[in-house]
Amino acid sequence: MTQVKICGIKTIKDAKVAIDAGARYIGLNFEEKSPRYLTVQDAAHLSAFIVSEGAIPVGVFTHHDAEKIISIAKACSLNTVQLHGENSRLANKNLPSDLKRIYIVEFDELGNINNIDQESFKKLDKERDYLLFDSTTPGTGQEAKLNKKNMLSDFRYFIAGGLNIDNIQAKIHEYQPYGVDVASGVESIRGIKSQTLIKQFTYLAQALGECYVANN
User: Fold this and answer.
1) Domains in the chain, please, with CATH?
2) Rounded-to-integer distance, Cα 211 and Cα 139, Å
3) CA–CA distance, 68 with 45 (Å, rounded to integer)
4) Of 156, 171, 184, 188, whose Cβ has the fewest other Cβ atoms within 10 Å?
C-alpha cells in the first residue's frame, strides 16, 4: 500500500482525522516563515499524540543545522526528520545514526535534479532513509516536473509537489512510489487543513496504491 504523509499538521483534531483516514506519517513544520510553523512546545504535544495513535511524527527542517535538528528532535521525541532546505540537507552528515532521514531531492522545470552535495548524500543509508522528490519551490503547491530517468531508485522514495485529489492516482500510477507527501493539496486556504480533503486524498492514494507492490 502506498504510504501517505500529510505535512504541515498543526492541530490534534487534524492529526486524528489524517491518522484515522490511514495516513502513516504526519509532518510537523519547524520553518518559522511558514504558515504551517509549530513551536517546539506545540510540536512536542502533537508528536506525543501522533505516536499514541500509532503513526509517525516527522520533523520538517529547512535552515536548521545539525545541533538544532538534534535538539528539536529530542525535545519532541522525533525518530524521523525531513531535511527540506539546503542547510538542513548539509547537516545530514552530522546527524546521529538513530535518526531516520527523509532527504529532499529537488527537480527543476526541465526535470533535472538540482545540485546535490555529494558528501552529505553519501551519508544516507538506503536501509534506513528515504528520498522525497519535489519541486524547487516545496510547500507552494507547484507541480514537480519529475523525470523517472533521473530518479535514484535504490532508495525508497516519496513524491511531492502539487499533489491533490485530482491527480494523485495518476501520479501513483506513473511513479509507483513508496509514499506520497501532501500539504497545500489538502488545505482550504494556505496553512489551514481541510479535513474533507485529507480524507479524500488518503483514500484515493491508498485505493490505487493497493494495486502495486511499490518500491518498498
Assistant:
1) 3-209 (3.20.20.70)
2) 28
3) 19
4) 188
